[in-house]
Specification:
With 274 residues, this protein is α+β, with helices and mostly antiparallel strands. The chain contains eight helices and eight strands; from the N terminus they run βββββαβββααααααα. The chain has three domains: 58 residues; 107 residues, D-Amino Acid Oxidase, subunit A, domain 2 (D-Amino Acid Oxidase, Chain A, domain 2); 81 residues, no CATH class.
Amino acid sequence: MTIGYVFATVFIGSAMLIVIINRFRDVGIFFGAVVMAGIGGLFLIPWGERVIIGTTDTDYDGSLDDVRAEAEDIAYLLNTVNEFFPKVALAENDIISAWAGLRPLVANPKGRPSDISRSHQITNPEPGWWDVAGGKLTTYRLMAEESVNQVIKWLKSLKSPKWKLLPCRTAELELLGAEETAGISSILPAEFSRRAIEHFCLHEWAVHLDDVMIRRSGWHYYFRDARQKSIQAAEWMGAVQSWDAGKKAEELQRYERAVDGVRMTNSAVRSHAH
């Protein structure tokens, strides 16, 4: 029995999001908003004192290990928001952070990236083999549940041996208990603290500084002074991981490489100031 995640028939499209300071309160926007732009829509989602704006869909054929937010996509998002909310008058210096990612979409040769379905497909081309393709990060547990349930159904059809086979329970289970995540796991990033870093290292398998700053805590995206905070974070993490001075310097350089590379030009953003 084998479950494979198939990329052979997958289209790779780029999705990009921007986090900015919450200047939207100046024009009375306190809740999420959707604006229709061209053939698609943009989402404006409050995140504490920030607002997340996105996404774009862009053909991508570059390195899978070095996906960056492109200047053209950033300008498109800012210009679109300014068109609908001219009093906000967003500029590039309002941006706190930006990120880009890739969606593994099931190919549709007749459509644009924005036309391609985000749904996943589970196929069983031969007994004991399943292919899972498409989907997205926010549906990974649903994909796992449906995959496991298909395997369970197949195993039951064999009628031998007589295992006790139960449906997937992921929808009923917490990834971590409340006592483990109090003050750590929330919609907003955890408080910037040594306690949080110790938790990420000891309970969430953080190995590198960028694991903590980018993927576990979200501090890099939320705080404008994230690079300064990374120096203290390296000290705290070094104490947990027994890093010497050389290793801490190496981890800071690794983090800088991970977050560097968003290139923006002021001329790309049109002024809508009144």
